[in-house]
């Protein structure tokens, strides 16, 4: 049985399709990540999801106004994929990064000297990739410094690109976040310790510590950082030998494109 981890975020009023959306990540029974995408809660039901078949061929479905699900014919076999709101990136079996669809901010302009990569994360108008030597490379929209990789970052083993901020896990397990920090989504707790996984939302960040503890920080208007409840749900799901979907309801707009966060 599959499961969904869901976190909601609200699009700014200036966004061409100001809808409340849910970020969906689907896991297999073995907890291997299969799907990473966005589904709309609007009545039109527009959605876009990218998935890997067992044969490593890239599948796609959903909204295609910016051709974000038109997989280039030369992509071939892939080992990883990340889909943002209007562009998609995939890592080929030879390590080459391929990005396609909307490119207004250069989020699909893969540097010619990038080389082989082992991981990729697509944000809103920007992209980050981890090279085979552990170096983090980011390109695209940089209004909030979300592509300004710290010079002292060192080698990383994982990266997650949010809407306006990014977080990376260093080879020593230290979590480093940069970009927009209005709601403390980049304020890594000083006592966090080593982490093994990270996922960035719209205005918040969650990390899995080496001891298995989940820690979240940043905006919490929908309870997206209420870890105690999340841990209880996870424990209950594991007790039944499966993972269960627990969607988070989106906040009302109140006549504005972005609600107030606490």
TrEMBL record:
<feature type="repeat" description="RCC1">
    <location>
        <begin position="134"/>
        <end position="172"/>
    </location>
</feature>
<dbReference type="GO" id="GO:0005737">
    <property type="term" value="C:cytoplasm"/>
</dbReference>
<dbReference type="GO" id="GO:0005085">
    <property type="term" value="F:guanyl-nucleotide exchange factor activity"/>
</dbReference>
<protein>
    <submittedName>
        <fullName>Putative E3 ubiquitin-protein ligase HERC4</fullName>
    </submittedName>
</protein>
<dbReference type="Pfam" id="PF13540">
    <property type="entry name" value="RCC1_2"/>
</dbReference>
<dbReference type="InterPro" id="IPR000408">
    <property type="entry name" value="Reg_chr_condens"/>
</dbReference>
<dbReference type="InterPro" id="IPR009091">
    <property type="entry name" value="RCC1/BLIP-II"/>
</dbReference>
<feature type="region of interest" description="Disordered">
    <location>
        <begin position="238"/>
        <end position="262"/>
    </location>
</feature>
<dbReference type="InterPro" id="IPR051553">
    <property type="entry name" value="Ran_GTPase-activating"/>
</dbReference>
């Amino acid at each position: 049985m599959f499961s969904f981890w869901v976190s909601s975020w609200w699009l700014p009023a200036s966004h061409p399709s100001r809808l409340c959306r849910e970020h969906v990540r689907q896991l297999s029974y073995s907890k291997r990540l299969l799907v990473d995408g966005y589904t709309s809660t609007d009545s039109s039901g527009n959605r876009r999801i990218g998935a890997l078949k067992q044969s490593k061929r890239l599948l796609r479905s959903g909204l295609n106004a910016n051709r974000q699900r038109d997989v280039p014919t030369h992509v071939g076999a892939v080992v990883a994929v990340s889909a943002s709101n209007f562009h998609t990136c995939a890592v080929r079996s030879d390590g080459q990064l391929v990005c396609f669809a909307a490119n207004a901010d250069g989020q699909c302009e893969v540097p010619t000297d990038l080389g082989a990569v082992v991981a990729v994360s697509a944000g809103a108008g920007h992209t980050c990739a981890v090279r085979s030597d552990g170096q983090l490379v980011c390109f695209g929209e940089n209004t909030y410094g979300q592509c300004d990789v710290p010079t002292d970052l060192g080698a990383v083993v994982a990266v997650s690109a949010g809407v306006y901020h990014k977080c990376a896990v260093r080879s020593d397990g230290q979590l480093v976040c940069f970009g927009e920090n209005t709601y403390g989504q980049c304020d890594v707790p000083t006592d966090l310790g080593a982490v093994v996984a990270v996922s960035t939302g719209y205005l918040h960040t969650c990390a899995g510590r080496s001891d298995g503890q989940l820690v979240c920080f940043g905006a919490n208007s929908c309870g997206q950082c209420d870890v105690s409840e999340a841990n209880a749900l996870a424990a209950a799901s594991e007790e039944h030998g499966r993972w269960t979907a627990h969607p988070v309801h989106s906040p009302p707009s109140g006549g504005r494109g972005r609600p107030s966060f606490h």
